[in-house]
C-alpha cells in the first residue's frame, strides 16, 4: 500500500496527478494531508505506519519528505511543488538530504513520475 501525503490542501492538484496514474493502473493507495511544520507529531505517526512506499508532496521549505524519511526505513519519494521561486526552493530542500536519510526526488510538480517510480519500487506491472 502506498501513502500519498501532502503538506497542504493547496497541493491537491499534484495529489490528483498521482491519483490519476494509480487509478489507471489499479494501484491501491491512501491520501493524507499533514504539515511537517504545523503537525510534526501527526507526520511522524503516519510515517511509522505499515505502508510500502511514501509519496510526500510539499512546496516552499518542503520539509515533509525529509521528516517522513526520518521516521521510516521504507522508500520515500519527494515531489517538489512550485509555489515560490518556481519550485526550486522545494526541489533543493528535497534533494539535499543528510546521509542516512535518503529521499528520492522527481521533477517539480511531477506527481505522475512519483506514481510511476512507486509502482516500479513495488514491482507493479
UniProtKB/TrEMBL annotation:
Residue intervals of the PurE domain: 1-124
GO BP: any one term: 'de novo' IMP biosynthetic process
Keywords per UniProt: Isomerase, Purine biosynthesis
Classification via SMART domains: AIRC
Source organism superkingdom: Archaea
Keyword Lipoprotein in annotation: no
Presence of keyword RNA-binding: no
Entry GO MF terms: 5-(carboxyamino)imidazole ribonucleotide mutase activity
EC code: 5.4.99.18
Pathway connected to this protein: Purine metabolism; IMP biosynthesis via de novo pathway; 5-amino-1-(5-phospho-D-ribosyl)imidazole-4-carboxylate from 5-amino-1-(5-phospho-D-ribosyl)imidazole (N5-CAIR route): step 2/2
Ligand binding (substrate): 8, 11, 38
Catalytic activity, as annotated: 5-carboxyamino-1-(5-phospho-D-ribosyl)imidazole + H(+) = 5-amino-1-(5-phospho-D-ribosyl)imidazole-4-carboxylate
PANTHER family xrefs: PHOSPHORIBOSYLAMINOIMIDAZOLE CARBOXYLASE, PHOSPHORIBOSYLAMINOIMIDAZOLE CARBOXYLASE CATALYTIC SUBUNIT
HAMAP family in alphabetical order: PurE_classI
Family named by the database record: Belongs to the AIR carboxylase family. Class I subfamily.
Name by which UniProt lists this protein: N5-carboxyaminoimidazole ribonucleotide mutase
Native organism: Candidatus Methanofastidiosum methylothiophilum
Amino acid at each position: 500500500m502506498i501513502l500519498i501525503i501532502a503538506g497542504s490542501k493547496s497541493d491537491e492538484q499534484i495529489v490528483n496527478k498521482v491519483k490519476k496514474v494509480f487509478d489507471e493502473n489499479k494501484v491501491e493507495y491512501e491520501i493524507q494531508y499533514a504539515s511537517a511544520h504545523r503537525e510534526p507529531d501527526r507526520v511522524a505517526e503516519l510515517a511509522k505506519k505499515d505502508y510500502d512506499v511514501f509519496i510526500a508532496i510539499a512546496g516552499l521549505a518542503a520539509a515533509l519528505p525529509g521528516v517522513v524519511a526520518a521516521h521510516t526505513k521504507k522508500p520515500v519519494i519527494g515531489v517538489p511543488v512550485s509555489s515560490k521561486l518556481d519550485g526550486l526552493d522545494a526541489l533543493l530542500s528535497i534533494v539535499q538530504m543528510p546521509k542516512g536519510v535518503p529521499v528520492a526526488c522527481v521533477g517539480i510538480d511531477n506527481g505522475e513520475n512519483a506514481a510511476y517510480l512507486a509502482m516500479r519500487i513495488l514491482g507493479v506491472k
